[in-house]
Amino acid sequence: MRVAQINPFLDPTDRAPEQLLRDWPTLGHCARAAADAGAHVDVVQCCARRDFMRRDEVDHHFLPFDDGGGQPSTRLAELLDRLQPDVIHLQGLGFAREVHWLSTLAPHVPLLLQDHADRPPRRPLAWWRSRRAFASARGLMFHAREQALPFFRHGLVSARTRIYEVPESSCDFQPRDRDEARRATGLTGDPCLLWVAHLDANKDPLTVLDGIALAVPRLPGLKLWMCFGKAPLYEAVRDRLRDPLLAGRVELLGVVPHARIEMLMSAADALVQGSHREGSGYSAIEALACGLSPVVTDIPAFRSLLGPLSVARLWPTGDAAALAAALVELAGTPAAERRAAVRARFDAHCSPAALSRSLAAAYADALAS
User: Fold this and answer.
1) Which helix (H) or strand (E) element contains residue 33?
2) Within 10 Å of residue 64's Cβ, how many Cβ atoms?
3) Which 3 state secondary structure label does DSSP give 300?
4) Phi, psi dihedral angles at 221 (to 5 degrees)
5) Of 23, 75, 82, 17, whose CA–CA distance to 51 is shortest?
6) Which pLDDT score is estimated for 69?
7) 3-state secondary structure of 271
8) If you write DSSP's letter for every residue of 347-368 in order, what string do you get?
9) What's the distance, CA 240 to chain centroid?
10) 147: three-class secondary structure by DSSP
11) Dist. CA 182–CA 201, nearest whole Å
């Protein structure tokens, strides 16, 4: 089976292809998982620069998709004609134009679209484009089937369109010795909490800080370490940290190299996150890989990710008191017990092998239908 995994997202910072592969590790995880299932995988990445490289038995093609006039580029058409894929797997639900191009260039090839925390268009005038795009697809992939409901409610998805439950990605992280990780990172706290997310409204750091403050009287040794990239709420977070209950308990680490996250997660006791919406939750997947208990919001992606895991906690979005209660409750469970159970959940649900099985099943079903 030959699979073309296509990512139409054009990097706005125009990073070089080599840098993109380093900065977007999830692109490689998904491709390797499909390759491990026995597929020949070609990653086709929209890029202003043309390039080709082979990594981990996967061919990566970088090229412009648009000819500059709103039509597919000749290079994209020639590449698809040369590859002759059996299945096309497109990353994202918000690329109606590119879906139309693919359905024209490869009309007989099953097309699967994967959700990445996408939402239906807000304007009714754009709905017909989405309906046309989804009608061209053999199936849609969500981490949790429940995430497809808004698209059905808006009448964008036909009842005959297949829905597959597939995690967005996986992770190569491994649990490290906790004491060694603490020495290497300098993390402290009892409990030691970690945040790995943007400081934006969707991730909701202010509610998380409110919950931390409420938990402090019952967890006087608590510390929170915050890693983040984009930070539109940075000043609001700094203002919130003037609270005496938070002063000296929250460290703003800012941007941290991705390779260091593995050691930080091994040093911490829990990952906290206040997301209102996620595709799968990359940080939560990485936490599971490291044996770190997530204390995250009760949204479809996280419910599916954690499943029956008893040593993690879900709390309602925007509910600081519920977060505080969850932290206090989790602190009473033995750390070694938590780590083993969390890693077992990762192995079963979203490890590279588990992702490989999910992708293989979706591809086989799309070919058979």
Assistant:
1) helix 25-36
2) 17
3) helix
4) -95, 5
5) 17
6) 84
7) strand
8) HHHTSHHHHHHHHHHHHHHHHH
9) 28
10) helix
11) 30
User: Do the strands 51-55 and 58-63 form a parallel or antiparallel pair, or are they unpaired?
Assistant: antiparallel
pTM, two decimal places: 0.92
**pLDDT at residue 129 in the model:** 87
pLDDT at 369: 78
Measured between alpha carbons, how far is 354 from 356 in angstroms, rounded to an integer? 5
Q: What is the mean pLDDT for each group of 10 consecutive residues in the chain (369 residues)?
A: 96 92 88 94 95 93 91 95 97 94 95 94 83 93 95 89 94 95 97 98 98 98 97 98 96 95 97 96 97 98 96 97 97 89 96 96 93
Please give the structure tokens belonging to residue 137: 């697809």
**What is the number of other CB atoms lying within 10 angstroms of the CB of residue 7?**
24
pLDDT at 335: 86
Cα 87 to Cα 108: distance, rounded to the nearest angstrom: 10
Sign of the alpha-carbon dihedral angle for 9, 12, 13, 16: positive
pLDDT for residue 127: 84
Q: How far apart are CA 59 and CA 53, in angstroms?
A: 6
Q: What is the pLDDT of residue 360?
A: 96
Q: Are 249 and 214 in contact (CB under 8 A)?
A: no
Would you state the pLDDT for residue 159? Answer: 81
Count the neighbouring beta carbons within 10 Å of the beta carbon of residue 328: 16
Report the interhelical angle of 282-289 vs 258-267 (nearest 10°): 60
R_g of the chain computed on alpha carbons: 21
pLDDT value at position 316? 98
Amino acid at residue number 27? L
**pLDDT for res 160:** 84
For residue 307, what are its two tokens? 């499943």
**Phi and psi dihedrals of 348, rounded to 5?**
-80, -30
CA atoms of 284 and 291, how far apart (whole Å): 10
3-state secondary structure of 174: coil
